[in-house]
Amino acid sequence: MTQLPDGRYLDDAPFDAQASLQQLERRDLDAPNWVLIWRQFKTHKLGLISGIFLLFSYLMLPFAGFIAPYTPNERHPDHLYSPPQSVNWYHEGEFIGPFIYPMTSEANLETFQWEFVPDTDNPAALEFFCEGKEYRLAGLIPTDTHLFCAPGDATIFLWGSDRLGRDVFSRILYGAQLSLTVGIIGITVSFLLGISFGSIAGYFGGRIDWCINRVIEILRSLPELPLWLALSAAVPSNWGPVAVFFIISVILGILDWPGLARSVRAKFLSLREEDYVRAAEMMGAKPGRVIRKHMLPNFMSHLIASATLSIPAMILGETALSFLGLGLRAPAVSWGVMLNDAQNLASIEIYPWTAIPMLPIIIVVLAFNFLGDGLRDSLDPYQH
Amino acid sequence: MRPLLSVDNLSIGFGTGTPVVSNVSFEVQPGETLALVGESGSGKTVTCRSVLRILPRAARIRSGTIRLNGSNGSKELTSLSERQMRNVRGNAISMIFQEPMHSLSPLHRIGNQISEVLWLHGRMREPAARKIVLECFERVGFPDPERAYDSYPFELSGGMRQRAMIAMAMVAKPDLLIADEPTTALDVTTQAQVLGLMKELQRDTGMAMILVTHDLGVVANMAEQVVVMHKGRVMEAGPAEPLLRSPAHAYTQQLFDAAPAIPAHPQLAPELPQDDLILQMKSVSKTYSMRAGKSWQPETKIHACRGIDFSLQRGKTLAIVGESGSGKTTAARIALGAELPDEGGEVLFRATPQSNPIAVHQMSRAARTAFQREAQMVFQDPYSSLSPRMRILDALCEPLEIHGIGSKSDRRDRAEKMLKLVGLGPDMLLRYPHAFSGGQRQRLSIARSLMLDPSLIVCDEPTSALDVSVQEQILRLLEEIQERENLSYLFISHDLAVVARIADEVAVMRAGLVVEQAPPDTLFYNPKHPYTKALIAAQPEPDIDRPIDLKLVASGAGSPSSWPEDFRFSDSMIPSLVQVEPGHKVRCHV
Predict the structure, then answer these.
(1) What is the tally of structural domains in chain B?
(2) What does the alpha-carbon distance between residue A244 and residue A232 come to, in Å, rounded to a whole number?
(3) pLDDT at B72
(4) Stretch A217-241: mean pLDDT
(5) Which residue range forms the structural domain that includes residue B80?
(6) Is B219 in the same domain as B162?
């Protein structure tokens, strides 16, 4: 600092009046949008963990049969309502690796209940990559190798067995295959409908917009649960489980699109006012090009976030329908179908492990919500 | 004399990054105005907000002291508790923000929002507060204080809202008022009136003021002390008069040179030739009908523009100047064919002197495509005119792609050439728009408009979102390109001084009508219309000897019905545009 005679202060540091025009002001923002979103998303720990968990869950789906010790409809008539068995490492203070105590069942003639007693004298070491019932890996390759199973006549029910002596743990893994994909298929249907109707309404406006909006309002005003019931009751009962599953996902998607179409329309209306959209129109771009090249890329990330937030609703919808016995039906396995068995209050009281399929539902729905939340927070990476 | 506020060696930083404000010191004497001058990113707003400790959450005061010697003793503001700080805010120091649209709550009546200051600081109950607020309203120039007290913010214009903000800041009689770009969002004439009001209030109450601004013209009219900031450092600080008369620092000099000015000694300009017109608009009007609030009332008609006759000579620039809502943007959109004029209006465009004119108001699809190659637009906001998802290369090549011109490598070559023309390097092609500064983006947007080799460019306030020094560079660039490519510009602006250097002819618009039209020199030499006179008078000049003439502003800036008899107009009776000199037309009754 120098002081001039008239009381002025001047900065001494050299000053370049022609600060280079070639310099980038925000080098950190010079990246494609998804890189910036990822950079921001990484800081959202809860969302990141949820994302990794969900990724892991979906990657596991094709290998569910390999991880599960039993196939979903394999019955153990001697082990009805067997309680969960724990995997132990130490037998009488000695390390012998992962093993279980075989269960023996006895009928209690006073209460008419099966009572299970672990045989603590004969530890049965778990076998790995062992042979079991045959299943198809990823639905294609027939194989009979399982990750782990109990030796000989011993059983391994990590989360207990149900009323027919089927392993709950294995059934949860198999159930995930349907319960998790129902959301994806449903959201695809609702995405296609929502984006096309929403963008038509938002871009063209006028009479089309009016019609689409009224349809949305009518669909939104229908009570959801009875409508589901009616639609799924219309599914012929002689259809196979896969066809029923598919039609249920589509029904869920068809009822979900109005919400998405509304947010697409709102986003379109606000994007239309952006100068780059107006610029493209003035250059002579046709509506299709404006929508594809300028508008969709700029709100795709918003759509993905809102889709992530509506998948849980689909999963819960499937669960609710199947729980009521109107969705998927046995022999298909889904979490809702499993919970259908837990409808009886008395059985939950005596065999609480039959309600365990609630846990994966809660965890997956929470994970989707955290993930969607994290995505939504990182959507606008340009603000800072 | 003990200073009212002394900021000493203040440094502020975000997170662990380099400080955004470093070693800033200044003092404010009681009753004096200190101007913090700088461009965006210079740290001036962060500095003034640190005084009230309302910094963004990630920002930390790293060092320095802020001492307030107010009417209730001396306080060190950086070490006060939040509770004590609340007592200072609004009471000893109050603040006016830049955006009058966003700084009032839309759900509460104006009067209640302002009385809240008095309730909060525990001085009085509602009836007493109401009386004081009404007095204050009268003081800041509300014509009907009672009505203003009971109205909601959306019922008031921008200028009136800013007056309400001033009332809110003044009502508790603070020792110090911090005004953060209080007039940047306002029209020139409103700006002049609000600045005049602030100065008057300051004289009456004897409070001190910190005025944050980027405009040296405002400084010359308002401040006694000036602090010039650049990139978080003080470049030059001291009394306003010597600083503005002979800037000592290179940066101050640069700001000074860049400030747009109305020529001091204008001369009568010759009439423009009218032999090779690229664009002609003949009696163009545009009426929007708005549904009334109640279904049994008839629709109200809004005249966005009325009876516009423009002709633009090839290679020249026609500027349309007016406040927001004057219809200048509508006129430009009609010229580009983006909107159709009312029945009877005609827009003719000649791509080359020999070619047949295209009737822009009734184009077929093929004619529209041909027209779009010849006429392009540069937008106001450089931050929204480039899609954030597209690399610069894709954005520049897009117009060629739409019209199916050239191969991929041809397009790339052309993009590189245009980038060079606007002064950017070819390595910028693969970057994303958000990496660039506002000025660079406006260059990119100009480059994109040049890609199709057009003959007419419509510039919609291309510099009003930019800093003064950048504005100067962009104007120079536009002039260079015009000379080289023989382009014609239709230039929209709210700022007469900006237009003064670039335009060959200026049309001043008000309420959808052209009130005066002439070459700029003629307009400055011999302005006839009271509104033009007000616009010229309201222009803040960085020259300390030319203060704003508020009387002249007030007489022309009011509604058209308050103008002198000769110029007055209403919906039913509109005087016609009369030629008073060759090439100089004024709307008046002869």
Answers:
(1) 3
(2) 9
(3) 74
(4) 82
(5) 1-92+175-250
(6) no
Q: What is the domain-level CATH number for residue B359?
A: 3.40.50.300
Residues A8 and A6: their CA atoms lie apart, in Å, by 6
Q: Cα–chain-centroid distance for residue B282?
A: 29
Scanning A45-98, the segments in alpha helix (DSSP H) are 45-60, 64-67
Tokens 């860049």 identify what position? Answer: B258
Please indicate if any CB of chain B lies within 8 Å of the CB of A6: yes
* Strands B317-321 and B505-510, bridge-based pairing: parallel
pLDDT at A384 over 60: no
Specify the range with the lowest mean pLDDT, choosing from A189-203, A236-250, B215-229: A236-250
Contacts of B389 in chain A (CB under 8 A): 32-33, 297-298
Structure tokens at B396: 């520049």
Any CB–CB contact under 8 A between A12 and chain B? no
**B141 and B31 assigned to the same domain:** no
Is the CB of A207 inside 8 Å of chain B's CB atoms?
A: no
Q: Which helix (H) or strand (E) holds B26?
A: strand B21-28
Closest residue in A to B243 (Cα) is: A8
Q: Is residue B55 part of a domain?
A: yes
**Residue, of B481 and A22, whose pLDDT is higher:** B481
Residues B350 and B455 in one domain: yes
Q: Which of B138, B157, B173 is the last residue of a domain?
A: B173
Interchain pair B435, A25: CB under 8 A: yes
Tell me if B267 is assigned to some domain.
no
- pTM of the predicted model, to two decimals? 0.81
A129-185 pLDDT per residue, tens? 888 888 888 778 888 888 888 887 778 888 888 888 888 899 999 888 888 888 888
Contact between B402 and A9 using a beta-carbon 8 Å cutoff: no
Contact assignment for A8 to B233 by CB distance below 8 Å: no
Q: Which one has a higher pLDDT value, B586 or A252?
A: B586
pLDDT, tens only, B308-317: 888 899 999 9
Q: How far is B590 from chain A (nearest CA, A)?
A: 42
Whether residue B491 is contained in a domain is answered as: yes
A282 touches chain B (CB under 8 A): yes
- Least CB–CB distance from A276: residue in B385, B432, B452: B385
Taking CB atoms and an 8 Å cutoff, what residues of chain B touch A9? 234, 236-238
Clarify whether residues B221 and B319 are in a common domain.
Answer: no
If asked whether residues B161 and B209 sit together in one domain, one would say no
- Kindly determine whether residue B248 and residue A4, on different chains, have CB atoms separated by under 8 Å: yes
CA distance B404 to chain A (A): 11
Exposure string for A87-120, b = 16+ CB within 10 A, e = fewer:
eeeebeeeeeeebbbbbebeeeeeeeebebeeee
Residue B255 lies in a domain: no
Q: What integer pLDDT is reported at residue A308 of this predicted model?
A: 85
pLDDT at residue A49 above 60? yes
Q: Which residues of A, range 28-57, sit inside 8 Å of B by Cβ? A: 28-33
Contact B235 A11 (CB under 8 A): yes
In this predicted model, what pLDDT tens digit does every residue of B179-202 receive, in sequence order? 998 888 788 888 888 898 889 889
Q: Where are the beta strands (DSSP E) in B496-553?
A: 505-510, 513-518
pLDDT digits (tens, 9 = 90+) for A8-37: 888 877 776 666 667 777 777 777 878 888
Alpha-carbon span B472 to B470, nearest angstrom: 5
B53 and B110 belong to one structural domain: no
